[in-house]
Amino acid sequence: MGADVFDACVVGSGAGGGAAAWALSRAGLRVLVLERGPHYTAKDFFHDELAVCRRDWFVPDPAREPHMVSRDGGTAERSADGWIACCVGGGTVHMSGYFFRMHREDFRGWPIRFEDLEPFYEEVEREIGVSGAGVPGEPRRKSHPLPPLLAHPAARLVDEACARLGLRAFPIPRAIVSADYRGRQACTYCGFCGSYGCEVDAKSSSLATFLPAAQRTGRLTLRARCRATRIVAENGRARAVLYLDERGREQRARARAIVVACSAIETARLLLASGVASSSGLLGKGLMFAALAAGYGRFPRESPAWSPSTERLPFIDRALQDLPDAPRGTILFQRPHPNPIFQAEKLAWNRSGPPASGSELKRRMREFFLETHTIEWESFSEFQPDDGCDVSLDPSVKDTAGQPVARVRIGVHPASLAASDRLAARAREVLSAAGAARQGETDAERVYTVLQCGTARMGTDPRSSVVDASCRTHDVEGLFVADSSSFCSSGSAPFTLTIMANALRVAAGIAGRMRKREL
Amino acid sequence: MIFDPRGHLEALGRLGRRGLLGWAALAALSRRLGAQETPTDTSAVLEAAAARILPSDDGPGAREAKVGRFIDRQLAGSLSALRPPFEQLARLLDLWSRKAFSKGFTALDPSAQDTMLGQLSRGELGVRGFPQEAMFRALHTLTLEGFLSDPVHGGNDGQVGWRAIGFPEPHLRKPGGHHGR
Fold first, then answer.
1. Partners of A479 in the beta sheet?
2. Which residue of A has its CA nearest to B165?
3. Which long-range contacts (CB under 8 A, 24 or more apart) does A182-188 make?
4. How many CB atoms lie under 10 A from the CB of residue B77?
């Protein structure tokens, strides 16, 4: 068993891992990144819904590498839920790229404040390229580095409806470059964003931004298809990461700083399996997601807002945030995803009973695909911590490496549902005012499991938190967490930008301590 | 929702290693119905069932899209782990059809097939130990996939499914086919 030696070893290469790897290597450190998935590049991406979105191209096959997921106290079943893309760049490769900052009030209960993250928010937005026109009510010293993406003319329906209701819709800030930026090509508006990799690297993923920038320092070693199996700590000090290389052989990498960023569920699983950072008894306990509601409005086919010449423009990209007389939260208005199988499944869904078949199913498909236009909405609100929501090691089911898989209990606090319901009512008001002929709800889980956090919370007291304000584990020197595991709340908007900003902050702390020879 | 949250792997993944009806129990049912000598053509039964989920009455359906061929290829390929439960599903539909209508499932008229599939979808066929609702959902998912997936997978023959919904052929149907940067 060989032992490589690095200054820092980052486990995971997504939003947190990619950002941390860049910041650490830029600071002069020799960095190893271990990523369990393959290293796809832009030329590998293609638009085959079945292969890319519905089989194991991005996420593992639940028959082989499941999460054991139970909902609302039900029995645990094999599932792909809770997995995020396993590839270099992680979830940022197949994200939609809704890039909101958290607001000051989102940091209640955190040991850090908005001001601690503000310079890092600015750095991420500038470094990777975020397109937007600011966010009303959001603290912001600098405007977005790129103007908003081109919106479909139907965005006007949302804008005008909101204005009539005394609300102000604004373009969704997106991690997609609206103009050529730092050698990357502008978005081509193909519409295959979420669930797909971007074939022109216009999406500001870690794959297209942080990782190539880190490689240009000459100090990054990136190892794909390498699965970390254990963090080795001795005498309260992190020493090494054990991993299986692409041929399944066990390897050991030593580093002065070990930075875990595998997403909240898999980070908790790796730390639990390693028997580290668990003295508080809270590791894996505080699992949170984004609370979600979703629905749609159907609009008449013949309308100036939907002229055939603009049919292919994919984005409406309008948002409302923190409305008066509503719980804090974000409502996004968007055109439907282009995936036809996904849409047909949603059309077949019934609130109770089996999915629609036969002439009823074909009628619904005709209405959606041929006879109307659709504006969809999604609401994001803060996920209230729930005792029935956590990650542990499954007592019996093992992955292909013989390690216990994650057992995930998903429980939703009634207060989260109530907040979602109130935001949903506001979204429906907007679509009514916009002239929707008919509205409905979407078959959606009430949580968005792709946005997961809280399993290794930050805090000052080692009895009530897993990591300190610098995201170092209380128990183990040299062991850090740089994904959303450390978050103390889910905020009230998608939080991928906050993962990246916090990872830069964590990395700056590590580099600073190394300079002072404290690590 | 611009992100497709992978309901598919959910629907199919949950079936994974679920306790299925034992083959012995199916054999016993066959004997009771005096049908043990009559083999079931799994492909034909699944194709007939798919053709009721997406019928061909007013425009193309599962048959024109060759959804049966798609399902065959999936169960021989990336979903081979699900072949046994789908074989059981086909056998169950066929046996139950013989019991209720004295002929095999594929020989039934469409309304009788609809009746049986409706019962299956609500778990109302009188067979215990078989996840009827889950298997109906899985068949439903495979039918939509076979109708609307890239023809390279064996269904959506001649893009008949895409044309029926006005879905434009995506560029980049295969990796490496673009002119990127």
1. A258
2. A369
3. A182/A129, A184/A129, A184/A208, A184/A209, A185/B180, A185/B181, A187/A149
4. 12
State pLDDT tens for residues A405-443: 999 999 999 999 999 999 999 999 999 999 999 999 886
- Give A148's DSSP letter: P
Tokens of B129: 């130990």
Cβ–Cβ < 8 Å for A369, A29: no
pLDDT in tens, A164-199: 999 999 999 999 999 999 999 999 999 999 999 999
- Degrees to nearest 5, angle at CA A211 with A205 and A217: 150
pLDDT for position B12: 53
Closest chain B residue to the Cα of A199, Cα to Cα? B180
Q: What is the DSSP string of A443-501?
A: ---SEEEEEEE-TT-B-S-TTT-SB-TTSBBSSSBTEEE-SGGG-S---SS--HHHHHH
User: What is the structure's pLDDT at B24?
Assistant: 62
- For the full predicted model, state whether its pTM sits above 0.80: yes
Q: Are B154 and B69 in contact (CB under 8 A)?
A: yes
Q: Report d(CA B64, CA B44) in Å as an integer.
A: 14
The pair phi, psi for residue A319, each rounded to 5°, is -135, 155
The residues pairing with A481 across neighbouring beta strands, listed in sequence order, are A260
Contacts of A51 in chain B (CB under 8 A): 150, 153
- Among A59, A357, A369, the residue with its CB nearest the CB of B140 is A357
